[in-house]
Structure formats: structure tokens, C-alpha cells
Predict the 3D structure of the following.
Amino acid sequence: MSKAAQSTAPESPAELAADLQDERLIRTEGLGGAARAFGRRVRGGDLGSLPVVIGLVVIWVVFQILNPNFLSANNLVNLTLQCAAIGTISIGIVLVLLLGQIDLSVGSVSGVAAAVLGVGFTQLHWPLWLTVIVAILAGSAIGLLYGFLFTRFGVPSFVITLAGLLGFLGLQLWILGPNSSINIPYDSWIVKFAQQTFLPPWAAYALAVIAAGGMFLSDWRRNVRRRKAGLSEGSVAVVALRAGLLLVGLCISVWYLSTDRGTGAMFLLFVILVVVMNFFLTRTRWGRSVFAVGGSVEAARRAGIKVNRVFISVFVLTSTFAAVGGLLAAARLASVSASSGGTDTNLNAIAAAVIGGTSLFGGRGSAWSALLGILVIQSISNGLTLMNLDSSYRFMITGAVLLLAVIIDSLSRRSRASHGQA
């Protein structure tokens, strides 16, 4: 056989990766293959974060047209700070929704944590660090109680957390006592952290480089592991392109926010929590167990997964994130009152998780849903405030967006089922 014939001859099965030796499998190599694979996933109903990203872009364009100040650096800095507290609570909602469960009491739990902070620091004169720890542990204890009731007695999570919504609201009022409002000193480090701490540009750029490098290294190590296992690898060009686009996007964001006050430390904490939970969900045995239990409890149990442990751990994390979000909200307002954690905290936290792409049916979602969803909700709220419209419009528009997100989730689930991918 000539050299030309040899160069055009197809690879023998022995030369192919183990997962590509079946000729019925679709090969997706290079940038073109990745693009075709993405198109097939979308047509099959696996939309991922695509709808919410498109929706966020549309919202920003519309509000920028209606009010040129919407995309100003000053307003975007305010927007990021507004996202942190409820966004942190929404991370926990993502976790519990992945199990196909719900927690209706996250607002009340955040209010209890805020009340502990206010009373413990200003009236009992506990050290601030100790007060923060006690408040977070109180949230964890509530989640442990939920997990025990759910796994021991089989009470539906809807009923347990609905009772918790009422019961812990009462506990919050009891902790506050006759005080309708408690002010947290502006010179305390937690208030300074929430209101006045912004990253210097060099630190923000360094974090952007670390984030992009971390993505590249993670994908590269995944390719190495697949190669050692005799499986096909992802395209190096795709890995480099993803990391490059992330770096460029982050650097542009840092530069633009730095023209005003910069990147808020509280928002950075929220993003770090999202990244950490995304790592645990996608790179650990515990995370795989969460998705397995959310997909089918019985199948997960037959596979040897300690289902009760998964449920308890998720309920504990959900309430812990609610407590941390309550502390951030109290610090940003520098006050605690009977309304802390009330009003629309519950609804916004749940709506952010669903709008961000977490399925109500369990087993599908991402920690990034909390970030994307809260950006959508706070963008709507922020834009309507700039237009001097009252909260009635915000509730109606947010409700419509939430309904649309659920409809898209239901349709994509039906599409995946029809394509044999559910």
C-alpha cells in the first residue's frame, strides 16, 4: 500500500479509544466536533444553562435601552452586592432540589441566624467571631433536625419545612424579644466586609488568572485520566478556548467594575461558595451520590449508596447556607429586625435556583444555577427600581419568568425522554 493510501486509511479498531471502537458511536473531535455535539444535545432537550444566559442578555439589553444607567459600573457593583445574600441561600436550594425535595424555611432560618448575630453581639456582648460561628451552627442544627425527621419518620420535606417556616419565625421573634430592630455597629468587621471591602484590581486580575488556569488544569487532568483508561479525550483546542474565553470575560468584568469601586468581597465570597459546591457536586463521590439519589432513590439504594446519609447531609448544607446568607444580609443592612429573612426571601431563593436551570424533578442542575438565577432576579428588581416602578411589577415579572423556566424545564425533560436521554 502506498504512503498516500496509508494516510487516508481509516484507523483500525485497535488504534481507537475503547469508547470509540463501536462504529455506531458518533465521534466528536476538535472544535467542529464539539460544536456538533453541543447542537445534538440542544436538539435532544439538554439545554443546560443556555436559556437563562440568553434570558439574562435580553434583560440587560432591554433595561439598558430603557435606562442608560443600568449597565454603568456603579450600578453593576450594586447589583453584585445585592446578589450575594440571597444567592448564598439559593445554593442550598439547588442542593435540595437536586434530590427532588424542597425547603420552604430557608428565609426563617436566615432570620434566626441574623437574630443570633444581633442579640449575641450587641446585647450579650459575645465576641463577633464566636457569634458568627454560633449563628452558623444554629442553621446546621436545624438542617440536622430536618434530616432526622425526613429519614426517621418519612415526613415529606414540604411538610417539615413548612412547619419550620412558622416555627423558626417564632424562634426568631423570641430571640429578638421586645426589640423591633437591632443595629449592628458600622465599625464591626462583618459590616465592613459586606459594605466597604472591595478587591484591589491586581488581586481581582490574579483571581481571574487562577480561575482560568484552574479550569484548564481540571480539563487537562480529566483528559489525562481518560487517556490512561484507554478512553477518548476531549479536544485540547476546546479546553484552551474555554479557559481563554473565561479569562477574557473575567478580566473585562474586573476592569469595568474597577472603574467604580471594584469587585465586592461579599460577592466574591458568594462566587467562591458556588465554585466549591460545584467541585463537590461534580468531582466527588458525595456529589455523584446526590445526583444518583435525585434520579432514583431506589436505584441509588440498590447501587450501595447510603441514601439517608445523603439526605441528611443535603438538609444540613441547605440550612447552613441559609444561615450564612442571613448573616450576609444582616451585615449589608447593618441591622436585624423581625422582618429579616421575611418578605420574599424564600420565594427569591427558590426562584433563583429554578430559573438558573435546576430541575424541580430532581437529578439535574448545577451549583452555577444559583449564580445565574439570582443575577436574573436581581437584574429585574434593579432595573425596575431604576425606572421608578413599584414592587408590584417586580413580583409579576419575576413570577412570569419563574413560570417560563418551569415550562422550559418540563419541555426539555419531555424532549430528553423522547430521545431516550431522560
